[in-house]
């Protein structure tokens, strides 16, 4: 609990997802939260961001959200940094215990993960695109405690609880995105990873090639480019092109720019819970991907390792 009360957490990007994360972490009573956000509140932000009000339109998102966030738990220090994350040097991120990025560009996400690994700072990245969401965790090397109940051979005797010290290693985001799967059969691959894992990567690749913008489902040109990226990405990953079908991509793109409150609540709740688990040092945190499909109501955890 001492670690949690003294923890310094960075939340980069103030969207509906990070509203949920901030709420849960502040209510848990961490030491301080720094909100890094350089953009202003728009009308569209009011749809799912419960920390914002109509009178906040035009204000900095971080400043506006922080006013409401501070009321949740006055003991938690809430700091706002209005500088663009792209202008922050790698050294900026080393002052925090946990760095959490929400909705950041692929380039910045990979850069900051690498910076956090250098300093062994806990790193999380997450995003929500309509009905779908993802979360990635990189703690480099994490030690934690786990309670184990040992059943006694004597009948009627209460089981004994022992505490075991455990650890787990994490791969960088960049290395997991370059994993080669060796052309397994689709059914066998689905037992290891969801097609949504690759669909999110394809969305990132489109953003990288198009100045950060999301594809439009109404644009035939965008859809053709997306399908081409799908074929190229799966070929390089040694995955059959049928593993990510057209319907999944079209459904993902159809609501890619939308913030759906229930989806943000589920992904944000899971993310905040895992951050608190990491800080407490009790039980194993996520290793290393969580993918949520709101249409099916399913959340899957995948351990994606770098290629040997």
Automatic annotation (TrEMBL):
Gene3D superfamilies noted in UniProt: NAD(P)-binding Rossmann-like Domain
Pathway: Protein modification; protein sumoylation
Any GO BP annotation: protein sumoylation
Signal peptide extent: none
One Pfam family here: ThiF
GO molecular function: SUMO activating enzyme activity
Keywords: Nucleus, Ubl conjugation pathway
InterPro entries named in the record: ThiF/MoeB/HesA (IPR045886), ThiF_NAD_FAD-bd (IPR000594), Ubiquitin-activating_enz (IPR035985), UBQ/SUMO-activ_enz_E1-like (IPR000011)
THIF-type NAD/FAD binding fold domain residues: 4-301
Subcellular location: Nucleus
Similarity comment: family membership: Belongs to the ubiquitin-activating E1 family.
Protein name: Ubiquitin-like 1-activating enzyme E1A
Organism this protein belongs to: Linnemannia gamsii
Gene: SAE1
């Amino acid at each position: 609990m001492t670690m949690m009360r003294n923890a310094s957490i960075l939340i980069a990007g103030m969207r509906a997802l990070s509203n949920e994360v901030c709420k849960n972490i502040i209510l848990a009573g961490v030491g301080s939260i720094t909100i890094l956000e350089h953009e202003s509140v728009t009308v569209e932000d009011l749809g799912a961001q419960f920390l914002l009000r109509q009178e906040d339109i035009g204000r900095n998102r971080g400043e506006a959200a922080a006013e409401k966030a501070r009321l949740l738990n006055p003991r938690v220090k809430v700091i706002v940094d209005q500088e663009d994350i792209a202008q922050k040097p790698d050294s900026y991120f080393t002052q925090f215990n946990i760095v959490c990025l929400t909705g950041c560009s692929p380039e910045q996400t990979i850069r900051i993960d690498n910076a956090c690994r250098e300093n062994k700072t806990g790193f999380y990245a997450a995003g929500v695109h309509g009905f779908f969401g993802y979360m990635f965790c990189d703690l480099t090397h994490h030690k934690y405690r786990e309670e184990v109940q040992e059943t006694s051979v004597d009948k009627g005797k209460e089981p004994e609880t022992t505490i075991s010290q455990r650890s787990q290693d994490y791969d960088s985001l960049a290395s997991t995105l370059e994993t080669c799967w060796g052309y397994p059969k689709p059914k066998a691959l689905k037992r290891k990873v969801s097609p949504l894992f690759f669909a999110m990567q394809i969305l990132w690749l489109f953003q990288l090639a198009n100045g950060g913008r999301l594809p439009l489902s109404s644009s035939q040109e965008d859809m053709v480019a997306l399908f081409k990226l799908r074929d190229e990405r799966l070929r390089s990953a040694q995955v059959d092109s049928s593993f990510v079908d057209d319907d999944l991509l079209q459904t993902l793109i159809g609501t890619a720019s939308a913030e759906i409150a229930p989806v943000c609540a589920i992904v944000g709740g899971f993310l905040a819970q895992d951050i608190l688990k990491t800080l407490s040092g009790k039980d194993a945190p996520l290793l290393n991907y969580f993918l949520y499909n709101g249409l099916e109501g399913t959340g899957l955890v995948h351990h994606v390792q770098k290629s040997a």
